[in-house]
Specification:
By secondary structure, the chain is of the alpha+beta class. It has 17 helices and nine strands. A four-stranded mixed β-sheet has the order 1-2-7-4, covered by helices on one side.
């Protein structure tokens, strides 16, 4: 049956009127919304990606800091087609991570979270849902609480002490006529930290001997690859229709690396099952992977199986705990070598409170006020992640007087906040003394929004206490027990690279010799 021409015409006119009304309404409401300023120069398809490409002069957090100087502490960019809000002031950070925290606590889905995070079972990559909250609660209570860290106190001190004694042994066997031996600081620190974290999380012990080097290399290699890939910019995340191209080959590399890491974790999980089947387990001193075998029974695991959740959660703790401490300590040693008066003052404090007859113990740290200030100042200038992990707004809201629509991504420029000249005198200078006077009340716990090196709000780094304890202990131990110098007393190159963390662009190799009595290393 054919419709009359008049009816068709009427429907067509009605449709056009409705369509026009929709666009007029949309334009009118857009004018009513007060949107944050958008950076000029965005390109079709890629948005402002060309501005964030790290180059020899500026890293992404510095580029965004320069844009904040031009556009103000709140502005928008487009990463591909994705609108992204950048905030760069403590006041805006406080608003987003207190008043609005519940709606900016989710993570957007990306290729890394899917392929490296066990399809988002790793709580660090997970959206802010009941599963995420349950896993974080277990992690904090079973491995990162003050009680648990106190129980693991001997593990930390033992590994640091053992490593320093190994350096002393190398120095004893040094070439004739040489006063110093060469140490790769990042490798030295990374090995200690890896041993401590693996012992706490998986009960993994490295017993020394010929086998240790090969197993350590295997662990270090796969975890280095994981951390490197997590920090890569994957084009398919921002421009989805190009994902099939796998620009840079990162997706392929992620699939290969995730299998290698899963193989390691599966081996350790099988070890736990065998030990559990062979007899009763001491629950008080059981590592996290073992505790998870019991804790996950009967829980709602959001469709995942218990083994996947166990491995994914252990992976989140390991990867989150290793890189942060290593990177921070490498920057701290670099800064001390370039500021010899600060190094001298830190050593004087250690000599007063510890002396030259023994190595540093964790109980000494509370008395080392200046050394704590050195760590805080390092974290201020070189926060491990200068840009916060990307969040996503789950609802429409208002930030700093501007309207923000749901689905917008949020990045907090922590580095810009921590170098604000209105808060920090001579903000780009290394001055630990500022944490002994004017800025003494600021701490790293995310409550003082002028100083948030570990992030803030509900998704602040859950391992910050462990990170601070390890950093303070290891820095105190190195500075106290070893004389440090660079080759030919040259200044340390402070060039930085950018990935998941802000790492040193070049290896830090330092000449060392003992500064304590020989009996201290026995």
């Amino acid at each position: 049956m054919e419709l009359p021409v008049e009816t068709i015409s009427f429907v067509a006119v009605l449709f056009l009127l409705l369509l026009s009304s929709f666009f007029l309404f949309k334009r009118a409401t857009a004018h009513k919304r007060k949107e944050p300023p958008e950076v000029t120069g965005g390109w079709p398809i890629i948005g402002h990606l060309q501005l964030l490409k790290a180059n020899n002069s500026q890293l992404p957090h510095e580029t965004l800091g320069s844009l904040a100087d031009k556009y103000g502490p709140i502005f928008r960019i487009r990463i591909g087609a994705q609108p992204t809000l950048i905030i760069s002031s403590s006041e805006l950070a406080k608003q987003c991570h207190t008043t609005l925290d519940s709606i900016v606590s989710s993570r957007p889905k990306n290729v890394g979270g899917k392929l490296l995070g066990y399809n988002y079972a790793a709580f660090g990559t997970r959206a802010y849902d009941s599963f995420y909250r349950s896993m974080r609660k277990i992690v904090v209570s079973e491995v990162l609480s003050n009680r648990c860290l106190e129980l693991q106190r001997d593990v930390k001190v033992c590994e640091v002490t053992k490593s320093l004694k190994e350096v002393y042994s190398q120095w004893i066997k040094r070439e004739e006529g040489s006063d110093y031996v060469l140490v790769d600081v990042e490798e030295f620190i990374g090995n200690i930290n890896l041993k401590v974290v693996l012992m706490m999380v998986c009960g993994k012990r490295f017993l020394g001997g010929c086998g240790e080097d090969e197993e350590m290399k295997r662990c270090r290699k796969v975890m280095r690859d994981i951390l490197d890939l997590m920090g890569k910019f994957v084009v398919g995340d921002s421009i989805p229709f190009l994902r099939w191209l796998d620009v840079g080959g990162y997706e392929k590399a992620m699939k290969i690396t995730s299998k290698k890491f899963d193989s390691l974790l599966e081996e350790w999980l099988e070890d736990h099952r065998r030990r559990r089947n062979s007899g009763p387990v001491d629950g008080e001193h059981e590592d996290f992977m073992g505790l998870m075998l019991s804790n996950l029974k009967g829980m709602d695991l959001a469709g995942y199986d218990a083994d996947t959740v166990n491995k994914a959660t252990c992976m989140s703790i390991i990867t989150g705990g290793i890189d942060t401490v290593t990177v921070t300590l490498a920057w701290a040693i670099s800064l001390l070598l370039n500021n010899r008066e600060v190094l001298r003052r830190a050593q004087e404090e250690l000599d007063i409170h510890v002396g030259n007859k023994r190595l540093v113990d964790e109980s000494d740290i509370s008395k080392l006020v200046y050394l704590q200030a050195v760590v805080n100042e390092t974290l201020r200038l070189y926060p491990p992640g200068p840009l916060s992990g990307v969040r996503v707004f789950s609802q429409d809201c208002t930030v700093g007087g501007y309207d923000v629509v749901a689905g917008t991504h949020l990045i907090t420029n922590l580095w810009k906040i921590q170098t604000n000249p209105q808060v920090w005198a001579e903000p780009l200078e290394f001055k630990p003394e500022r944490f002994l006077s004017r800025n003494k009340q600021l701490d790293v716990k995310g409550q003082s929004f002028e100083f948030v090196p570990f992030g803030c709000g509900r998704r602040a780094c859950p391992g910050m206490n462990l990170g601070i304890q390890m950093t303070q202990l290891m820095l105190a131990s190195l500075v106290h027990s070893l004389e440090l110098r660079t080759c030919c007393d040259e200044p340390v190159d402070m060039a930085a690279g950018f990935g998941l963390t802000m790492y040193r662009a070049n290896p830090l190799q330092v000449l060392v010799k003992p500064r304590l009595l020989a009996s201290a290393y026995a």
